[in-house]
Amino acid sequence: MILATFNRYLATAWRKRPTDMSETYEVLLADLLSELVAVSLEYSNNSVSDVFVYASTEQRWFFIDPFFARHGEIVERHKLAGVDTSDERQDAFLAYGTKQLAQFAKECSALDYAVPTEIKVHYVVATGKTDASQQYEAQHSNTSDVSVHDKSEEWMEEVRLLVRGRS
Fold first, then answer.
1. How far apart are CA 62 and CA 77, in angstroms?
2. What is the pTM (predicted TM-score) of this model?
3. By CB neighbour count within 10 A (0-12 exposed, 13-18 middle, 19+ buried), where does 53 fall?
4. pLDDT tens-digit readout, 63-101
5. Per-residue pLDDT tens for 93-127?
6. Residue 31: enclosing H or E segment and its boundaries?
7. CA 10, 32, 74, 62: dihedral to nearest 10 degrees?
8. Is residue 53 within 8 Å of 37, Cβ to Cβ?
9. How far is 167 from 143, CA to CA, in rounded Å?
10. Cα 2 to Cα 67: distance, rounded to the nearest angstrom
């Protein structure tokens, strides 16, 4: 049920998407976002109000960093109370998400679609509303001062302020 609602909102969620891409790209992206949100909800035992996933494919190095909102606060995956946050479970969670991201990039490349360098996903559990944005320019590899972790942390801080503002 959650994924069906999630998929209904995907059609309006994309911003900054190249205009020459077809429905096939949209299906690939929808499948990726659906997988990332589903595995994040499973990891959190559906105990969160929002799911956020930062993903990067820059220079063919695949990275995801999911985090959550619960009770009006941003919670990192290793700090989710009442959830198995063992290193083994986190490793499996991240490995699965990274594998899905790599598969998405491979399929995009095979179809000559531009692969986003950065994807940010926000899924609201209560409404099923999804916001997703993609960037296609270098976000961190073009400077030695910024890492993929810095970009993820930067977005998490932006989200933290947004979540605090709505509480």
1. 18
2. 0.83
3. buried
4. 999 999 999 999 999 999 999 999 999 999 999 999 999
5. 999 999 999 999 999 999 889 999 999 999 999 99
6. helix 23-43
7. -140
8. yes
9. 36
10. 18
